[in-house]
Each structure stands twice: as structure tokens, then as C-alpha cells.
Amino acid sequence: MNKQTAGIHHITAFVQNAQANVDFYAGVLGLRLVKKTINFDAPEVYHLYFGDQIGSPGTIITFFPWADSRKGKVGGGQVGITTYVVPAGTLDFWEERLKRHRIPVTQTTRFNERYLQFSDYDGLQLELVAREEGPASEWSFGGVPADKAIKGFGGAVLYSTAPAYTGNLLERVMGLQKVGQEGDYTRYRATGDLGNIIDVNVTPMAYGVGGAGTVHHIAWRAKDYEDHAQWRSHIEENGLSPTPIIDRQYFNAIYFREAGGILFEIATDPPGFARDEEADELGEKLMLPEWYEPNRSQIEANLSPIQVRVLEADK
After folding, report:
1. CA 24 – CA 308 distance, rounded (Å)
2. Which segments constitute the VOC domain (predicted)?
3. What is the Cα–Cα distance from 313 to 178, expressed in whole angstroms?
4. How many CB atoms lie within 10 A of CB 28?
């Protein structure tokens, strides 16, 4: 069976403070909070989703804000850097914006592309790159107009403890195309126009430590439920051990850990985030799966209030 993923569906990370998380991703980066729900396995913890105007696959970053969680260490077996793509010609706008919000920025070049690198309030490593490809976002918020808004993921930099095995998996199992090697990284490309460029370290990297400021897993796209079931069989046929299919309300998921230590998920594009809210009301209300609805009052009482707000630097 030959399979090709279109690219990244979403990336999920750990942070500590929920309001600070909202302030950074909605307030500074201008993303839309498209879903406010809970960790289904730990209902005292939010699960927050940020993306474009509807939370399209390839735009979604999600967080578990755990107030008392340990600080993590970015390293092998993780997504090392989450890459966002912005419209061509807007990097200067973003550099000035980040500096105005007192976020230190460094510049680097990989594969003849210029990147702005920075970290969120918990130390999660991020970068911006400008490209023509990929649909423009229709969302604007605070000081970020739609014509300069983040489109979604440009891709990711994977930190592997066994990069040869990770690269082989990306190419032979996930269906990405090897583009080439430059310096410390090998580049791979998926078929989609967002979340499609994956760089992998060449030299094996020591394991990181999970915790706030680190990525928990990276999810890849399956176009529908039939495709998703095929992916599960495909992963199993290639000697890996995927979980059973799990209903995550807004997509179905399977998980497996690859030889370089990184936790992979494959997630369905449908049904999306408008299954339980109107598109113009996404992220406004705490949404719970039906089995938690009887406990809504208790769950809401245990969660700290959060709000999407325009930050002082944009007023």
C-alpha cells in the first residue's frame, strides 16, 4: 500500500498558564481561538485550539495548560521548532511586531529561506517564514490584519534521536519527498500547501524532557475516515504499533511512536470544529463531550477563567 499525507494536521504542546497562552497565540500571533474544551483524560485541564478562521487542518496548534506542571527541556524525540508561514513580504512586519511585544527575535537561513525565530512565554520554540504558497487566512485580530496574518504551519523541525530512521519513515511510510540536505538538516516535502516542509536533524540528538514549553505530538492529515482506516493498516504493515482509532470529537486519531522517539498521530480532516458550534461563535464557550456534560458546573468551577483580549501594545 502506498500512502501520502498532505502534511501536518495539528501540533499539540504543554504550557503552564492558560491566560498567558491565549494572550500569546491570539493576542500576539493573531490566531483564532477556535475551540475551548478540556483534556478528555484530565478534565481539570483545558484543551485549547488555535488556528485560522475555522481551524483548518494545517493551521491548528493545541495546548494543555497545566498550571503546576514541570518545565520541559526541548530535545530529541520531540518537534524541536514549530514553523508558521506568513504571506510573502510580511516578515518585516512580523519582526517589528514581535519586538514591540518584547519578544526576542533572531534570524537564520535554511535552504535559502529566511526565518524569524523566537519562543512563546513557556519556551516553546517557534519560527516564521514567508512563502507564496498556501491559502491566506481570513482572520484578523488586534494588531494583525488579515493580509499579514499567519496562514498556518509552514512545517516543523523534528529533533530525532535516530534521524536516519525518522527520515526513512517520513519518506517510505508517510509519503514525503526528500528534497535534500543542507548543513545540519535534511528536508522533506509533503503534498499539501500548508504544513508541508519538514526538516530533520542530521546528527542524532539526546532525548529532551517533556513538560511545559515542549511539544507532545505532531499529527499528520488523513483526508477522511476511510483514508484514516487505511493509514492504520499501513502503519501496522510497516512494523509500527498504532493505537486503536480514537474519537477526539473534532477528528479521529491514531497514535504511534517512531524510532527517533517522536510521537506521531494521524488525524482525520473531518468533522472539524463547527460540529458543535456555529462558525462565527467558535471558541466562545467551553465545549464538553456529552459524557462530561452532567459535570459541567464542577468542571467550569475548577478551570481558571480565560479571555481573548487585545493586548496593551495594540491599543
Report:
1. 10
2. 7-131, 152-269
3. 42
4. 23
Q: How far apart are CA 233 and CA 241, in angstroms?
A: 10
d(CA 2, CA 183): 30
CA proximity to 261, closest of 125, 79, 14: 79
8-314 maps to CATH 3.20.20.100: no
d(CA 197, CA 263): 18
Question: What pLDDT, in 10s, does the model give residues 12-62?
Answer: 999 999 999 999 999 999 999 999 999 999 999 999 999 999 999 999 999
Residues 104 and 118: beta-carbon distance below 8 Å: yes
Instruction: Count CB atoms within 10 A of the CB of residue 104.
Output: 9
Contact between residue 14 and residue 39 where contact means Cβ atoms under 8 Å apart: no
Structure pTM? Answer: 0.97
User: What is d(CA 260, CA 76) in angstroms, rounded to the nearest whole number?
Assistant: 8
How many residues are present in the chain? 315
- Cα–Cα distance between 249 and 159 in angstroms, integer? 29
Tell me which amino acid residue 81 is. I
Say whether pLDDT at 153 is over 90.
yes
Hey, what's the cell of 255? 497514535
Q: Could you tell me if residue 260 is left (phi over 0), alpha (psi between -120 and 50 degrees) or otherwise beta?
A: alpha
For the chain, what is the radius of gyration of the CA atoms? 18
CA distance 231 to 26: 33
